Amino acid sequence: MEGPHLDSHRRAITAARAAADKKGEDTIVLDVGDIIGITEVFVITSGTNTRQVRTICDEIEQAVKRDGGTAPRSVEGLEGASWVLLDYGDLVVHVFLAETREYYALERLWTDAPRIEWEPTARAGRSSL
Asked: For residue 47, is it within any domain?
């Protein structure tokens, strides 16, 4: 894999790791480019309350910028923080409240999309000292 696919996948993994750093739950990365054509990758994660959803979104934005990316083109849903969508063009990050994620079940909608494997950073698993 080369070119823009590699970059969008790398940034998606960065976003997934950032979500894990803030205790995002059941974080998955889906390669949806061949299915929908308007974006390459979805990251889907969830938090247990609106404060955590906002914190996850902030961490993702900062991590993607640190990794050489830009700010999202648009951010939708941050005010209510039940389903926040961070649109980077070729990468779309969905950060849900757990119950909202269960209701909309995006994973079922995109079952044909291959999952991209990723591992949390070492920092995500450590407790702070």
From this structure: yes
Residues 43, 49, 50: CA angle, nearest 5 degrees: 80
Which CATH number belongs to the domain containing residue 103 in this structure? 3.30.460.10
Round to whole Å and give the CA distance between 100 and 91.
21
Specify if 121 maps to a domain: no
Domain count, the chain: 1
What pTM does this model have? 0.89
Stretch (H or E) spanning 11:
helix 4-21
Separation between Cα atoms, residue 49 and residue 68, nearest integer Å: 29
Task: Give the Cα separation of 18 and 62 in Å (integer).
Answer: 9
pLDDT digits (tens, 9 = 90+) for 47-66: 999 999 999 999 999 999 99
Tokens of 23: 């205790």
Widest CA span in the chain: 45
Measured between alpha carbons, how far is 48 from 18 in angstroms, rounded to an integer? 16
Over residues 19-34, the pLDDT tens digits come to 999 999 999 999 999 9
Residue range(s) defining the domain that contains residue 61: 4-116
Mean per-residue pLDDT over the chain, rounded? 91
